[in-house]
Structure formats: C-alpha cells, structure tokens
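WARN retry 2 of 3 for item q-0093 after timeout on previous attempt; input resubmitted unchanged.
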Amino acid sequence: MATFGELLAASLERVKAVAQDNIVQAVSLGRTDRERLLKNGWLTPIIRGWYILGHPEGQGETTQWYASYWQFVRCYLAERFGTNYCLSPESSLDFFLDQNNVPKQLMVVALSGGTTKVDLPHDTSLLAWKGDVPQAREVIQGIQVMPLANALCRVSPTFFNHAPASAEIALRLATPAAIARYVIDGGHSVVAGRMIGAYRFLGDEAAAETIAMGFKVKGERIREANPFTIAQPLLGCKPFRPRSPYAARIEALWQQMREPVIATFPKAPGLPSEPSRYLAQVEERYRFDAYHSLSIEGYQVNYDLIERIRNGEWNPDESATDHDQRNAMAAKGYHAAFKAVCFSIEAIFEKTEPGSVIERDLSKWYQALFTPSVQAELVRASDLAGFRNNQVFIRGAAHVPPPKEALVDAMEALLNCLKNEAEASVRAVLGHFIFVYIHPYMDGNGRIGRFIMNAMLASGGYRWTVIRSDKTRRDRYMNTLDIASSQHDISAFAQFIVEEMAVDWESAK
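OK item q-0093 returned
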C-alpha cells in the first residue's frame, strides 16, 4: 500500500502537469487529488473553480496572491472571453506604466456578457462589462490591452486630474503621430483638443502641432483644453522621452511628494558646528538603533549580543547563545554597516554633496552589511554584486517592486533626485521611501533605507532617528510606507518620521 507521502507526491505530479504557471482550474483535477491537495495546503482557492498551486507555508499570504495575480488574470480572461476582450483604457495605461502593480480593481471590456464584479483575494477585484472592444489591441504577457496612444485618447478627462503622474508619463512615452492618426481618422476633435492642450502644458510644442496639423489640413478648428489641474508638469516643462516608465515614475513621485514632506517637517537646523559631538551622539544611540532596526526585520537580537559584537567579545565557541549564526551575523554586519554610514556622514559634514556621497558609498554599506554572512557561508559572495536578479514581493504590502530589468534606470533616477534636492528633509524621507519602493536588493532593503534616511537627516543637522520595533510602531511604519507606495500619499509616513525623530532616547538608556 502506498504511503501518505507517495500519494501526496503523485497528486502533486498530476496537478503540475495541468497547471498553467501556478494556476489550476478545478475541472482539470480529479476529486481525490483536489481534496488531498486542498487539505494539505498545496492549493489555495482564488474564486470558485480556480486555485493557486504553491507551498503550504505561503497560504494566506499576500505575497502568494500578488506573485500569481497576472498569471490568474491571463488564464481567467482567456477562459471566459477567449480573445474577445480588452483591458479598459485606464487599466491598459496602468499596465503599460507598471506591469508589476496589482490594482485594487482591474477593469475589462468584453464583447459578451453583462456587467460582472469578481471579488478576488486580499481586497482586490475584477470588473467586466459588455462594451466596444477595439480592433486595435496589443498582447503583453498574454493579456490584451489597448495600444498606449489609443488608451490615452479613450480615458476619461478626469484621469488627468486624479492620476497626473500617470497621465504625464503616458503622454511622454506615447508617439504623437499615433495619437494624431487615432483622433484624425476617428474624427475625435474634442479628444484632439485635449491632447493638444496636454502636450502644450508639458512644453512639447512639436507633439501638439503634430496632432493639430491634420485638422488644419482638413480645415477644421480645434478647441484646445488643458486637462491637467496641477500648476506645472511633474517632470519639467521640456519635451523628452523617459528612459523607462519606472524611472519616470520615480522622478514624478519625487516632485509630487516633496511639498507635503516640507510642510510636515520642522526647519532643518543646518550642519552641526561640532561634527565630532554629533557623531558621538550617533554612537551613543547605536545599540538602540541596531536592536530596533534588526528587530523590525525579524531578527532576534538583544542588547547584550549587540554590545559583545561591538566590543569584539562575541565568541561562538564559548557561548551557546552565539550559535544562532543568522542573528549574530546580522548584528555583526549591522555594526560594520553602521560604521561605514558614520564615515559617509563625516564626508557630508566636510561639505561633500549628500546625494553624491550616497551614490559613492551605497554599495559599501551593502557589502559591509552582508560580509559577515558571506564569511559564515550563509550568503553567497556573488549575491553582493550589483542589484537583485529576481522578482521580490513585500509581505503584507500591496506594492510590488519593479522587475529586475528596471533596477538600473530606477536607481539612477533615485540618485539623480537625491543629488538635485536642496531640502534635507525631502532627501531623508523620500530617499528612504523610494529606495524601499524600488527594493533593489534581495535582502537588507529596510536597513539600508533607514541608513539613507539617517545620513540625509544628518545632512540637514536633524537628529539620528531610530524607528521603534514594538508592534504598534512597526505596523504603523509598514502601513504608512505601503500607503505611500500604493496610494502615492507620503504625508502619513513623513509625520511618522517626525514623531520618531522627537523621541528622547537619552531617557531610554
């Protein structure tokens, strides 16, 4: 008689044979296999008749759903509508600009069926309705979307109000000639006036005239109307095509978020008159900073371990508590990285431009953070070379970081923003936020992000700030970061940093 393990393995082999990526339909499974795999956590229900095939440890986690979202959408839409569907103009634009992002609600236009809302895991949904599916469609990752120019012309004018960054990036990425062909061939004079007004607002007169010329030739007058309500373009009043939508998104987020940060923060004290005294105060806060920063990331460390590592007294051969290598190597690496950050702050105090210091020293911080783990053979040395090589997902967060192919452009955009920013508070808050938004490394992003924050706080003379790790503060920290990532609202995160900055750590000794 077969053992339980043999039966489970056989069921897994059969389900893998019929799964599309990691998405499985109930109709392709035998009842016994389905019940066995469900009972043991290998299948996670999405909606009735659809499952995610994955390890039981990931069941119930947002990570599993976000990692599987677009595979499910591709399979579900193909099964339900065949090729007779298209993402709505708004959802098409979102998909063009950030294919990793999991929207709260995906909108789909189909040739058949009525209006249907499908509730999906973790407060996401899919809304489909019967409507005009354009003949011109593109297939990206197996999903049918409207071409970029067509989607821009078909979105509601309110899109330019509630999503100005997305609208601006899409306009800069689109080909004006394609927009011109769409509005001229379709006789969409009102839309043409909106597109012309939008391009003039962005300072791209050539694009505006490309669209206007066709109507002038036809002898038709166009009433131009700027659909944007913001005072000025987020990416500047000049025509250019972004290197990538991800780089443009970061530059637009920076401009969109800087004023709320400035309004929230107290005025910068300025570089300290006694740098050595400032650095001595930073050193005094080291054990609190290390304990809380490591605890936020799930490491189990205590003040005694931190102090023994700092003083060179850590000895795994003599102390049983030092056998927990993962925690000890994290603490040892944190101390080395902390010292490297202090050297960087010294350079800033010597009037080196703060953004340039980050650009020069960032990889040194990262290598210091993980060198002990490499030496203990817990991490491969090659993992410290460059940025991550795989997709990452943030547990419990709606935001999905950019794909590995976008990291070079995204990080270049962040560093340029840091170097061009005059306000230390903005460099600190947005430097931290956008770094973890990009998540360029497989591990250590939170710790490095907090180091960037503190180096940039120092560049304005603000105090070294410790983010506390008790559940209430950690939850608020993670939630405000996620709000900034998914809703593009930085206010709550900036306020949180101000509150943590005001904590009196002298009384906590």
